[in-house]
């Protein structure tokens, strides 16, 4: 299938009661769109990063009772898994789409990467637009713009706190017309990830 955009029905998925029922809707409505987006942008991500990039679609396999409040796709150089590595994400909560370059708590080299980011904060603030958002917890909707966040504090927490995370990118509200135009969204995603690619490369440097 080709990607034609996200719809109100996609966001309404997160109002469905019950784990099995919501997961069935995620699998039917949203996951095919993640695959369609990947078909369009994976080669671009490989070009931006210098790595072969593989799609991972969240399965929410650990959930036994509570249905997921969001769902996502991840793009990583490791075809076996993404959580231990820097990766890109495209996903949905009930009220917005997110596009992140993500560093989550499972990463074994968080301290090294956090230190590297702290040592190169100027490259982040000078090369990434101030309206880009930062999240410190991939499980929550909360995010703050680069314009207002205390970036040094956020990166220090990412480095020093076991559960600390750092995600940077963009959020698009569910009612934004951009989401209804597949090609415009794909171009927006490409632009977002190309902007973040230098930071990705910095974190992947041996």
Q: Brief description of this entry?
A:
This protein is of the alpha+beta class and 206 residues long. The protein contains six helices and seven strands, in the order ααββββααββαβα. The protein has a seven-stranded antiparallel beta sheet.
Overview of the structural elements:
The chain has 206 residues and is an alpha+beta fold. It has a single domain, classed as BirA Bifunctional Protein, domain 2. Helices cover 42% and strands 18% of the residues. The chain contains six helices and seven strands, in the order ααββββααββαβα. Helix 3 runs antiparallel to helix 5. The radius of gyration is 16 Å and the shape is globular. The termini are far apart. The model has no long low-confidence stretch (mean pLDDT 95).
Write a concise keyword list for the protein shown above.
single chain; 206 residues; alpha+beta; 6 helices; 7 strands; 42% helix; globular
- Strands, count: 7
CATH class category: Alpha Beta
Largest sheet: 7 strands, antiparallel
How much is the average pLDDT? Answer: 95
Uncertain residue ranges: none
The end-to-end distance, rounded to whole angstroms, is: 38 Å
CATH homologous superfamily designation: Protein of unknown function DUF1054
Question: Which structural class best describes the helix and strand composition?
Answer: alpha+beta
Could you say what the CATH architecture is? 2-Layer Sandwich
List the helices and strands and how they pair.
Layout: H1 8-12, H2 19-49, E1 54-57, E2 71-76, E3 87-92, E4 96-103, H3 110-119, H4 121-127, E5 133-135, E6 144-145, H5 151-160, E7 166-173, H6 182-204
Antiparallel strand pairs: 1-2, 2-3, 3-4, 4-7, 5-6, 5-7
Helix pairs in contact: 2-6, 3-5
